[in-house]
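Protein modeling request. Please complete all fields; requests missing the sequence field cannot be processed.
Requester role: graduate student
Desired output: 3D structure, token encoding
Chains: 1
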Amino acid sequence: ADGFIEIFNSSHGIPEKDLVPADERRERILYSGSIGPATLTSHLAQESLSSVKFDIAGPAETEEARQMLAELQRRPNVNYLGVLPASELAKTRGQYAYSLVMWNPTDINQLYASPNKFFETIQAGVPPIAAPHPQCTEIIDRYKCGQVMADWEADSFSKAVTKAMRLFRTDRRGYSDMVAGCLKASKTELKWDIQFRKVVSRLPGARALTGQPAPAV
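Delivered output (217 residues):
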């Protein structure tokens, strides 16, 4: 509708020269964020994913979450990094093949969740494996920059991860194309100046203040 503007969160981009080349990535998947039922982290404990290596970083703040973390740590393919500051995550994120983005859609906030880490992973050139949250799906479909789960169930998570890792292991060109999609999204849309122009185009007198014509939205 004309009365609405869709704004995408945009983290600080990483210079392209500093990105880890696609063929030098570690054969591991990163999950960073809160651990517990709200973020579906129990999906990582599936036996069907025993050959996939995961690194997880984040807090387990409830007894249920701590039990979930303990179960994950018993699995030989899961490595817990602890709670890392954002600066350290930013330094290491680009080394991974993929990064996980998912929340249990128990309410409207969880369904439409699209916080920093989704955009940070794209701007690090690391394709996200995401649950089908609307904005995540929109960006991934537009730029072919990641893998979207069919739904939020454990089996769909397993299938999406397996498909993504098969691509990483056997189709380097296909994986490189996905990384290129991340870079295209970062350059053409996921930048704050581009997002601010959407707002400027709707503010009376804002074009005169900026001295630049606002693009059509």
